[in-house]
């Protein structure tokens, strides 16, 4: 009888431990992953520039070069969502979105992703300065801020340097609405970057 009781208690403990482990891994506790991507590519409305364009890797400070997703409820207090993350580092997703958008717009005759062994006359350098959901105020916003530079590698000169800052209203609170607003801001940012490049390359001719 004591042996049967011991086996019963052992089985009961194992079942409780298994149930606890399963509870820790319920879908409610799992992370949700989100994409930073272009939804509406800019239209091709200008001739492609000759000479090719290299899109460099996007730079960012360590707090932005991570899959953790930032939000802000008070000044000087950035925080990360507990269970919402980017599917890849925003810097990598931004580089892909820039290439796709600039190709769709016919910005240059050849667009290359850095690093590459191939050469091109022009180079786009981008730095991610801000990417967050801002809950200060009555309406939450997705914030996207980029510094872009267009370089002429043949002439070793900077053709253009701009800071592009966007605040897109969110339709609701929460990471999902923030990502949707952020992607709308990204569409606008790519259109503005295309305009900067086209104007800079035209002035360089």
From TrEMBL:
<keyword id="KW-0732">Signal</keyword>
<feature type="domain" description="ABC-type transport auxiliary lipoprotein component">
    <location>
        <begin position="40"/>
        <end position="193"/>
    </location>
</feature>
<dbReference type="InterPro" id="IPR005586">
    <property type="entry name" value="ABC_trans_aux"/>
</dbReference>
<protein>
    <submittedName>
        <fullName>Cholesterol transport system auxiliary component</fullName>
    </submittedName>
</protein>
<feature type="signal peptide">
    <location>
        <begin position="1"/>
        <end position="23"/>
    </location>
</feature>
<dbReference type="Pfam" id="PF03886">
    <property type="entry name" value="ABC_trans_aux"/>
</dbReference>
